[in-house]
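Case study: Cell shape-determining protein MreB.
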Amino acid sequence: MCPKQIAIDFGTSNTLIYIKGRGLVLQEPSVVAINKNNDRILAVGFDAQRMIGKTPVNIQIIKPLKYGSINHFDIAKVMLQNFIEQTKQGGRFFKAFSRAEVLVGVPSGITQVERRGIEEVIKEAGARKVMVVKSVVAAAIGSGASINKPKITFVVDVGGGTTDVAAITLGGILVENSIKVGGNSIDEAIIHYLKKKHNINIGEITAENIKIKIGDAIGKEEKVLEVTGQNLTSGLPILVNINSAEIFTAIKRPLDKIVAAIKKVIEQCPPESAADILENGVVLTGGGSLLNNFDTLLRNELGIKVTSVEQPLIMVTQGLGITLDHLDLLDSMMLEYSPRDIQNKESIIQEDKDIEE
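Here is what the predicted structure looks like once written out:
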């Protein structure tokens, strides 16, 4: 019996799981609610997200990933186990996840230690083998780009915790850059601005709602939104009207950092790649790219065309799912087995034989 093959986009903001033969089976926020008195997990995903800002002192809301790497190992493991449990089909769960081959997307700028942490969490959750691919490459594959050709595919993946930028060609990364700025940074900028300019405090859910409703990457929109927050002086609830011009001012700094990161990669590309970049432009993906007029901002700043994918939130997972059908190409691409799996390849083969017997 062949082992189950699973792809996981283990993101700072969201976790997505794809099972070969079934497609995308889970898309939940990477959030956990825990009872501090006994360390018991109370809720994960959407159930935990709904508790944000409304919990008593004994309940803590934790996001176990930060900037694409594991921040709370044990909680990340339990969260992943809960998510895996939710992928039951017809009341039957594929054999305890213990025989699964898992392909996971990781940020470009991740360190070996951070990468090992992600691998260990997935292993601890029960996976038999873990393989990794850079999320920006998976996003390129998911968008339909032919990354093995001698043509530059330029990808910008704006996630919750990081923005990854890469020029990809001939199955490898020519130049890449990763910064710890993403959708969450934009939310944080809105929170900071309202504290400074309006003397009110808002939560991350409210900040994200403001970003979605009146956020604009080029300051073109002229919208007003009534926002409820907490007066920092009196501590009492207060209503204020916020306009889109203010939000543009608030989020300009993180947007400038993303643009600078993209320009840095373009500048580092060899001169021969300029024609490809000009012809093919930029593929824009990731949940952070849903900010209104983000693609227009990049066109204005870079002077090249920008293509926004239709489903940016699932593009990495889609690419990982496609890659599951071509695992034989891992050695010739930037996709790779983890060092531990390479070292234990013979024992893994023997494990398969033992299980089948």
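For the exam, be able to explain this: The chain has two domains: 5-138+315-356, 144-308.
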